């Protein structure tokens, strides 16, 4: 019985002891648990504070990096501009040095230097037009140089002196003329022989057949011959222009015509024949006189206001009656209205703008003019014809 009771209580006792042992172990943990919770809370707050500070530091670093990036970008743009200028300058110096080396190495002359001078001249004329652009069509009314000659003016016949070979031939001919047979041979003219006359007739017949032939090959040969030996009409006209004015420049000529355009157009709109006489030829003045007479009888005139003048363009260069003839065009923006003698608008509107195209036919005079100071003025270009055409209004 005691043994059975001991066998039953032994496991119970062992379980009680185990519970006590576990309680003794858990009790310190329960006491330390609030301290652990407080410690964990303080650590969490500290970690959140650190996280906020880290975020603030990251934002500050981000803004600082953005400012630094902007500074880098601005610095980079400035460096790019500086690098571009340096590369352009280096390239220009390289080309200049090569041109100078080529001119120094060539035996024909400073080709590269002339090329750079020509390039600089063209750029200067385009970007900075010359200030001495004068009129191309205005007649010179100032004093001219008087050329007087007081010497003899009669024609005198002078014997041409014979050369050495001609003297020898004349001497031999005089000696051989005494022999009858040789004298007969020397006096024979080839043009009087029957064979020469027959051959000349054959040549004339072939020439007539060639000139009157309609064969396409003949036309092609004539066109090729005309292009090879005479050139185009424009090239012949330019040769004639430069023979009369060796310093002629087409770019300068265009600028000179643009200087004359507002003066001539305004005089035409005002019906001012006196001003037009300084620029136009007699045929054109006669035609203008008839037009102005018609308007004056009605007591009306066109508004002379010119708002804008476009660039002058060369249409054609040709020869007319052996004189160079240049056709150019430009446009003007004018007020489309007609006024009476009191200035009242009777047709159109003072607020309506039209574009009018003008075509000028300019003919070059034959000789230049020498002023009293000794300055040589190039031959004048006379306005021989003028046409105009108005387009639809811009406003």
TrEMBL record:
Biased composition (Low complexity): 48-78
Molecular functions (GO terms): protein-folding chaperone binding
SMART domains in the cross-refs: Tim44
A single BP term in Gene Ontology: protein import into mitochondrial matrix
Keywords: Membrane, Mitochondrion, Mitochondrion inner membrane, Transit peptide
Signal sequence region: none
GO cellular component terms given for this protein: mitochondrial inner membrane
Primary residence: mitochondrion
Residue span(s) of domain Tim44-like: 234-374
Pfam families (alphabetical): Tim44
Coiled coil: none
Region feature (Disordered): 47-78
Subcellular location: Mitochondrion inner membrane
InterPro entries registered for this protein in UniProt: NTF2-like_dom_sf (IPR032710), Tim44-like (IPR039544), Tim44-like_dom (IPR007379)
Family: Belongs to the Tim44 family.
Protein name according to UniProt: Tim44-like domain-containing protein
Species in which this protein is naturally found: Edaphochlamys debaryana
């Amino acid at each position: 019985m005691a043994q059975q009771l001991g066998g039953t209580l032994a496991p119970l006792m062992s379980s009680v002891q185990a519970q006590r042992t576990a309680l003794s172990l858990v009790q310190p943990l329960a006491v330390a648990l609030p301290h652990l919770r407080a410690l964990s809370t303080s650590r969490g707050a500290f970690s959140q504070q650190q996280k906020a500070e880290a975020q603030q530091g990251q934002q500050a670093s981000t803004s600082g990096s953005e400012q630094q990036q902007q500074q880098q970008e601005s610095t980079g743009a400035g460096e790019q501009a500086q690098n571009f200028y340096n590369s352009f300058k280096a390239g220009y110096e390289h080309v200049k040095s090569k041109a100078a080396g080529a001119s120094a190495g060539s035996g024909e002359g400073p080709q590269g230097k002339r090329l750079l001078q020509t390039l600089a001249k063209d750029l200067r004329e385009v970007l900075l037009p010359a200030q001495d652009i004068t009129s191309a069509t205005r007649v010179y009314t100032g004093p001219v140089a008087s050329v007087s000659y007081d010497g003899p003016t009669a024609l005198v016949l002078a014997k041409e002196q014979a050369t050495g070979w001609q003297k020898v031939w004349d001497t031999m001919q005089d000696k051989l003329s005494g022999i009858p047979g040789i004298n007969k041979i020397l006096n024979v003219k080839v043009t009087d022989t029957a064979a020469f006359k027959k051959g000349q007739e054959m040549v004339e017949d072939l020439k007539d057949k060639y000139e009157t032939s309609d064969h396409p090959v003949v036309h092609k040969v004539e066109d090729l011959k005309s292009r090879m030996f005479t050139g185009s009409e424009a090239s012949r006209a330019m040769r004639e222009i430069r023979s009369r004015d060796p310093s002629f420049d087409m770019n300068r000529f265009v600028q000179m015509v643009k200087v004359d355009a507002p003066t001539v157009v305004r005089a035409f709109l005002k019906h001012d024949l006196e001003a037009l006489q300084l620029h136009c030829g007699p045929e054109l003045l006669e035609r203008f006189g008839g037009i102005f007479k018609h308007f004056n009888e009605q007591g009306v005139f066109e508004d002379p206001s010119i708002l804008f003048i476009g660039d002058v363009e060369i249409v054609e260069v040709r020869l007319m009656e052996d004189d160079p003839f240049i056709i150019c065009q430009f446009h003007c923006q004018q007020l489309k209205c007609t006024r009476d003698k009191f200035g009242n608008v009777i047709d159109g509107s003072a607020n309506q703008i039209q574009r009018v195209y003008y075509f000028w036919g300019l003919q070059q005079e034959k000789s230049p003019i020498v002023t009293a100071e000794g300055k040589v003025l190039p031959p004048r270009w006379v306005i021989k014809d003028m046409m105009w055409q108005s387009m639809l209004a811009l406003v």
